[in-house]
Write a structure and sequence with these properties.
This protein is of the alpha/beta class and about 700 residues long. The chain contains 21 helices and 33 strands. It is elongated. It holds the Pfam family Beta-Casp.
Length: about 700
């Protein structure tokens, strides 16, 4: 088995991407888009927002020495530095270097991991089988269609551009361009140019989705009779999953960004991932927020009592509701801030697009406003909002238990349906929709994409409210508010940047591994450097690195073979002399690969049942001394002669048979020859050989 990390991603919106070589099949796991890269483009026509203040990324300064900081300060990033052309989109940088025709399987773990797939399926050499959950397929398709819809606004601003290479890249390859922009465009090592692509079309999305096979929760699918693939809930969001792959060479589990307990999605599935031969851990999301000790490592489970021994209590410690309650407190805080802004006469713009967070915020905000005296409308502006919100109430198997119970009792899984029906939540496909214009009133609360602040209605609304100190902008943590807000500065709005859980806390990783108990644990080097896994004594731990291939040793040296009881009863077993604990039998049939297992099948009836005798088949080399002893016991006398070759080494051995009849047996590297004119002697020699060698 081989594993290559093509990209470690950058949190929820840009998940990791891996290439796996398993049982001779090449498997691509996730194909995301780095949508944060489009922040280098200006969201508005040239000249608008030119009064924006200068900005320099603190993050880029912190990584430099004092001399470099001074050089950067001499040339600060301004709004004029942003690219005022139709955006291109950045894919996984190393993916374009792989031959598409060599990919056999694509596994998509969540909707964000689907956004770059149409770029791959456009390749005429791509014929891989694509698996993802039915929910990921639906939500991901709607997200891609929404991106295409929002992107059309750029063509209205800048006009169509059908060039095969973006001309704006040449303008950024100069010393005068701020380092932050060059890093986004060219990458840290300067080899990201091949990652920029023109956005796909609706036809490309449709063609891509026709190649997808959607799977249900825990449904087993078989690829080529060899691999059994199963999707298990990761708890990250609705429809997001981890993967379990079983094959003739053992079992493998792939753990992507995951959350153990969720208030909207089905919780993390432990059972299906237990005791696999290999566990690939690919959750990089918590590295930025991890708690680091003085020696640079993360203390195991600083929030809870860490249990170093493997016991049933470990799983219970992972399933505590502390993290999920903390998430609910964050959502409640967002609601209270929005209510305060509305009470002061200001509007709230929420650019968060994580479907689970949006659903919970809609529910909490609507309940909060209903119980208060505030009469503030909630607008959701998206080309796919109506279809997406309706769909989330039709997939109970991917929801948490509480919401499943609500559906069973006859209530909607999420409360937004009631508020949409009561005209307290208003859905509109675009900001210029006629019905929106007639329904508009301020103050209001608006859910509008895109979180990058470059696409969609969030751009126009931010331009509208940026000078209002009573209004509120809600961003998700991980979005560079400095570069993201650059085209809109100066900005007087209050800004609330929220950090929502998007993966496994590193403190809980040792406990998770103790619960799952894999034989080999593959962990990113960046993770292993920041958390001590020394407490896990019985597991082989291998580090893997970005853009490097890791070779994993074979776990199952002797794969098992299934055989039916009826067929086994017809076999004539013979014990081996050299290995008495082993038996061997001959079979006319075939060895098949079916459902990930070797199966032995019979093509014809066994010859013993028809009474026909079969000639014995032997293996190994005959020792002349042993054969002569066997012949003497049968009354055949003889002697051994050793002949030498030209170089003085022993070339061959010969047994001269003297009594009762003459003959000779010649041994060489090419084989054994029996020379005699007496058929009885030949028969006795064969009988003696059968007593010396193993055979069937």
């Amino acid at each position: 088995m081989e594993l290559t990390c093509l990209s470690k991603g950058d949190g929820f919106h840009y998940p990791p991407c891996h290439m796996l070589n398993l049982c001779g099949f090449r498997i691509l796991i996730d194909c995301p888009l780095d949508l944060s890269a489009i922040k280098i483009f200006s969201p508005v026509p040239s000249g608008v927002g030119s009064e924006a203040s200068e900005y320099l990324s603190d993050e880029s300064l912190d990584a430099q020495n004092p001399i470099q900081k001074k050089q950067k300060l001499e040339r600060q990033l301004t709004c004029a530095d942003l690219v005022c052309e139709e955006p291109w989109y950045k894919t996984v940088k190393a993916l374009h270097l792989w031959e598409a025709s060599f990919i056999d399987i694509v596994l998509i773990s969540n909707p964000m991991g689907l956004l770059g797939l149409p770029f791959l399926t456009q390749n005429p050499g791509f014929f891989a089988k694509i698996y993802m959950t039915e929910v990921t397929a639906k939500i991901g398709q709607l997200m891609m269609e929404d991106i295409v819809s929002m992107h059309k606004e750029f063509r209205c601003f800048h006009g169509p551009d059908n060039s095969s290479f973006p001309g704006w890249i040449k303008n950024l390859d100069s010393e005068q361009v701020p380092a932050l922009l060059k890093k986004v465009v060219f990458g840290e090592s300067g080899d990201d140019l091949g990652s920029w692509m023109r956005l796909y079309s609706l036809d490309d999305i449709e063609s891509c989705m026709k190649k997808v096979q959607g799977v249900k929760f825990a449904e087993e699918v078989c690829y080529n009779g060899t691999l059994i693939i199963k999707a298990l809930s990761s708890g990250l969001d609705i429809g997001a999953c981890n993967w379990l792959i079983n094959g003739p060479n053992g079992s493998l589990s792939y753990v992507s960004d995951s959350i153990f307990v969720s208030h909207h999605a089905r919780s993390f599935d432990f059972h299906g991932l237990k005791e696999t031969d290999v566990l690939i851990y690919s959750d990089f999301s918590s590295l930025q927020s991890a708690e680091v000790t003085e020696d640079g490592c993360i203390s195991p489970d600083s929030d809870n009592n860490y249990i170093s021994t493997i016991s049933s209590d470990n799983k219970d410690s992972l399933l505590n509701t502390e993290d999920s309650l903390e998430e609910m407190e964050k959502l409640a805080f967002v609601c209270s801030c929005a209510a305060e802004s509305a009470d002061a006469g200001g509007s709230t713009l929420i650019t968060i697009t994580r479907i689970g967070i949006v659903l919970q915020l809609l529910e909490l905000l609507s309940n909060s406003l209903e119980s208060s005296s505030l009469k503030v409308p909630i607008f959701v502006i998206s080309s796919v909002a109506e279809e997406l919100l309706a769909y989330t109430n039709t997939i109970p198997e991917w929801l948490c238990e509480q919401r499943q119970e609500k559906l069973i009792s006859g209530e909607p899984s999420f409360g937004h349906l009631k508020f949409i029906k009561n005209k307290k939540i208003h859905l509109f496909p675009a900001i210029h929709s006629p019905n929106l214009i007639t329904s508009w009133q301020e103050p209001c609360i608006v859910f509008a994409s895109h979180w990058s602040l470059r696409l969609g209605p969030s751009v126009q609304l931010l331009q509208r409210w940026r000078g209002d100190p009573k209004s509120l902008l809600v961003l998700e943590d991980g979005i560079s508010s400095g570069l993201g807000l650059l085209p809109f500065r100066p900005i007087a709005m209050k800004i609330l940047q929220c950090s929502f859980l998007s993966g496994i806390r590193l403190q809980k990783l040792p406990t998770l591994v103790s619960v799952l108990q894999p034989k080999i644990f593959l962990v990113p080097d960046a993770v292993n450097q920041r958390i001590s896994l020394a407490a896990i004594k019985t597991i082989s731990i291998l580090n893997y690195f970005e853009n490097k291939t890791l070779h994993v040793p074979r776990i199952v040296d002797n794969p098992s073979v299934e055989i039916t009881t009826d067929l086994a009863s017809k076999l004539s077993w013979r014990k081996l002399r050299q290995r008495e604990s082993f038996g061997i039998a001959r079979l006319k049939g075939g060895l098949l690969m079916e459902d990930g297992k070797h199966r032995l099948v019979s093509g014809l009836e066994q010859e013993e049942s028809s009474g026909k005798a079969r000639p014995l088949r032997h293996w190994g080399s005959v020792a002349p001394e042993l054969l002569l002893d066997a012949l003497l016991k049968m009354g055949i006398k003889g002697s051994i002669e050793q002949s030498t070759g030209d170089n003085g080494s022993e070339d061959k051995s010969i047994i001269h048979i003297e009594n009762p009849n003459s003959g000779l047996i010649e041994f060489s590297e090419m084989g054994t020859a029996i020379i005699t004119g007496d058929e009885n002697v030949v028969s006795q020699v064969f009988q003696a050989i059968d007593g010396v060698l193993d055979g069937i």
